[in-house]
Amino acid sequence: MNESRWLDGSLYPDADAPDVLESLADRVDFIARLCAAWDFGLLPREVTVTEIRKEEWKPAVEACRLLTSPAYHLLRRWHGLPPVAYLGQQIAVIRDDPCLEKV
Question: Which of 30, 47, 61, 79 has the fewest C-beta atoms lying within 10 Å of its C-beta?
């Protein structure tokens, strides 16, 4: 697949969006940018989610270690990686919701 089709250039407001993500470092940077935007409420496009769920993204997801990001923990789960400690904010109204265990 042509990377430019799934690679969301809006995740690079501080730099020119790359045409391809060749190195592990490039992929880790993309995962960090994607998770930060997702946590902020900017949902990724379906084609982007389909791409990052591919097996070849597993090393980048593992290396990213964005432990404060709920989206990152979801990516770990999708890739079958072992859970790691979540270091982000826990919102009491959600944490203490008795219906949360049913979700």
Answer: 47
